[in-house]
């Protein structure tokens, strides 16, 4: 179904890849893009489970917008035991770099909420316009 604000629909594959990441932990990240006809959000890239955060950031173009989901593993101090406890949170990232065209920024901004609502299980939303806004430190600060 098309997003009422932007007219951009979501390909079924988007939800399928997200469910594989969330439920089956089959992927580390999934990058989505609006197709060239500005009609649908489609899967752009999928990061295998062994991929790192650097692989995600390398998948984001410097001159165009993207959506991404990233399964971030981190540790927290465990108050009931010695050491640290492993945790995981799924981040939804809207990548909108300064060098992207105005039309691209508008389409991604107007499609964001409708697309995000289809990704049930995302725990943290982030918006980044330059690489310094999308680092492991930023993720760790939002994860805690």
Question: What would your notes on this structure say?
Answer:
The structure is a single chain. By secondary structure, the chain is α/β, with parallel strands linked by helices. It is 28% helix and 33% strand. It has helices at residues 12-22, 53-58, 102-117, 136-143; strands at 9-10, 27-34, 40-48, 66-77, 84-95, 124-128. Strands 1-3-2-4-5-6 form a six-stranded mixed β-sheet, sandwiched between helices.
Short recap of the structure:
The protein is an alpha/beta fold. It is built from 4 helices and 6 strands; from the N terminus they run βαββαββαβα.
Going across the biggest sheet, name each strand in turn: 1-3-2-4-5-6
Proportion of beta-strand residues: 25-35%
Oligomer: single chain
Average pLDDT metric: 90
Structural class comes to alpha/beta
Q: So how many helices?
A: 4
Strand/helix succession: EHEEHEEHEH
Query: Biggest β-sheet, characterized?
Result: 6 strands, mixed
Give the helix level as a range of percent: 25-40%
Low-confidence region ranges:
none
Number of strands: 6
Shape assignment: globular
Q: Tell me the span between the first and last alpha carbons.
A: 35 Å
Cα Rg = 16 Å
